[in-house]
Amino acid sequence: MNVLGFDTATPATAAAVLRADGESFELRDDPAAGERPAHGSRLLTLAEQVLADAGLAWRDLDRIAVGVGPGGFTGLRIGLATARALSRGTGLELVAVGSLKALALGAPAGPPVLAVLDARRGEAFAAAWSPGLARELLAPAALAPDALAEWVAALSPAPLAVGDGAIRFREQLEAAGAAVAPDGDRAHRLLAASVCRLGATGTPTPRDALLPHYAREPDAIPRPR
Fold it and tell me: Which pTM was predicted?
């Protein structure tokens, strides 16, 4: 199965292709410190380029996998709107993939894995799985760092924490017993190739039923009239 996957839950824009032969190809745009995410201007360009890198055309794909969060409100809207538009134009089926699960899939094998994304507002989006992602230990949620640290302290064995939220809240997580990968470690990156791998085995989602998982209210909530 040939799968195109992408994720816009974090400031990075990531796109990948998993070919039927098992080889994967990935491209990403990571904004520099202080720069705004470029999901809207970069996602389609990256998708088309990674398809070319994989030696495939749109007609060669079997499905599209897209990260549905939790994550940044605007980024998720762009990613899902793009996925729906591509599905409508190509007829390809869609598969929704949890962004935290994709992050966890990229962690080294061994201990339980705690996937943590910086949710801003002093919170983290977090979820945890037993080794090999065999069992969900913590459902995706938005948590204050103290609440997350309290949960970690009660878990045995201690987890490995990955993601930009694990870096931001390293002090609290390590004090609670978690191991946190070094700041520059690849494990902290949410890889689109992981979105592809989860999407290859996932159940297709009807296009109109593809929805983001925000895990909390967006930053700007329209006031009732």
Answer: 0.94
Contact, 190 vs 163, CB < 8 A?
Answer: yes
What are the pLDDT tens digits along the chain (225 aa)? 999 999 999 999 999 999 999 999 999 999 998 899 999 999 999 999 999 999 999 999 999 999 999 999 999 999 999 999 999 999 999 999 999 999 999 999 999 999 999 999 999 999 999 999 999 999 999 999 999 999 999 999 999 999 999 999 999 999 999 999 999 999 999 999 999 999 999 999 999 999 999 988 765 444 444
Token pair belonging to 8: 């816009």
Residue 139 parent element (H or E): strand 136-143
What is the phi/psi pair of residue 7, to 5°? -145, 135
How many helices (H) and strands (E) in the chain? 7, 10
Q: Which residues pair with 210 in a beta bridge?
A: none
